[in-house]
Specification:
Number of helices: 9
CATH architecture of the largest domain: 2-Layer Sandwich
Structural class: alpha+beta
Number of domains: 2
């Protein structure tokens, strides 16, 4: 399978639109939950263009045999199957990455209300094509983010976690199943994000979260057991019980820093 992945990556590289404009291509690695034998597996690539990103379907015109092609209407992103393997390609502008990295270095830089998963892709991505040292310089910058970045991230995420707990409690009181599940989904995402931030790590791919969270150096006492109970879906763990466990985990995280 490793050889097939390498073959498919080469095929994708050879089929790039406007190759002279491509500064770098990175493949996003997997460490556990998204290994090739997993049904969650797919090849993820980030293409960084120096200037204009080719439009769809121009950017795929040199690739043959694609199946189930779909593209995002809100961002430069394509999904398709190549030789029966799912592939996801994100297209990004080099100067936008530079601007983002610069803002992260500033003492009063903007908080990131969204996931740090994009920074994970930048830092942990494996360069499979690179014209200059640019991507390595980006990685070096991400290694030396100021403590103020992590402090602000943690404070922001803790506040969000508390708000989501309040939403879940309101949903339980009102017997609103949909509102509870929406709050619970946000709670789980934020719980993972804050734990990665406390460990000064960027959030990994969603399909890797359960695997990588267990390996974090700083976790609340008994975290694994409490978290597994939180994910249970049997009759003994109704919404009231889930809220109780979620509140306990949040409280144990809030005192970590």
């Amino acid at each position: 399978m490793i050889q097939k992945i390498q073959h498919l990556v080469e095929t994708l590289l050879n089929g790039m639109a406007d190759p002279e404009n491509v500064e770098c291509v990175q493949r996003i690695p997997y460490h556990g939950g998204g290994l090739p034998q997993s049904p969650l597996f797919c090849i993820k690539l980030d293409l960084f263009y120096r200037s204009t990103i080719p439009s769809f379907p121009t950017r795929l015109k040199n690739l043959q045999g694609l199946k189930f092609v779909e593209t995002s209407l809100s961002r430069a992103k394509d999904r398709f199957f190549l030789e029966d393997v799912p592939v996801r390609v994100d297209y990004k502008l080099q100067n936008q990455v530079d601007d983002e990295i610069l803002s992260l270095k500033e003492a009063d830089g903007a908080l990131r209300p969204e996931s740090t998963y994009g920074l994970f892709r930048l830092y942990h991505g494996i360069p499979v094509h690179s014209k200059t040292s640019w991507i390595h310089e980006v990685k070096t910058c991400l290694e030396t983010l100021p403590d103020s970045f992590w402090t602000a991230q943690i404070a922001n995420l803790k506040g969000r976690l508390e708000h989501l707990l309040a939403d879940m409690a309101a949903a339980v009181f009102n017997r609103d199943t949909l509102y509870f599940h929406l709050g619970f989904a946000g709670y789980l995402e934020t719980l993972a994000e804050v734990l990665f931030a406390i460990n000064h790590q960027f959030a990994c791919p969603p399909e890797e979260l359960r695997f990588q969270m267990s390996g974090l150096a700083v976790l609340p006492n008994g975290f694994s057991a409490w978290f597994e109970n939180l994910l249970r879906d049997d009759a003994g763990f109704d919404r009231e019980r889930k809220l109780e466990i979620a509140r306990h985990l949040a409280e144990s995280i809030l005192v970590l820093t």
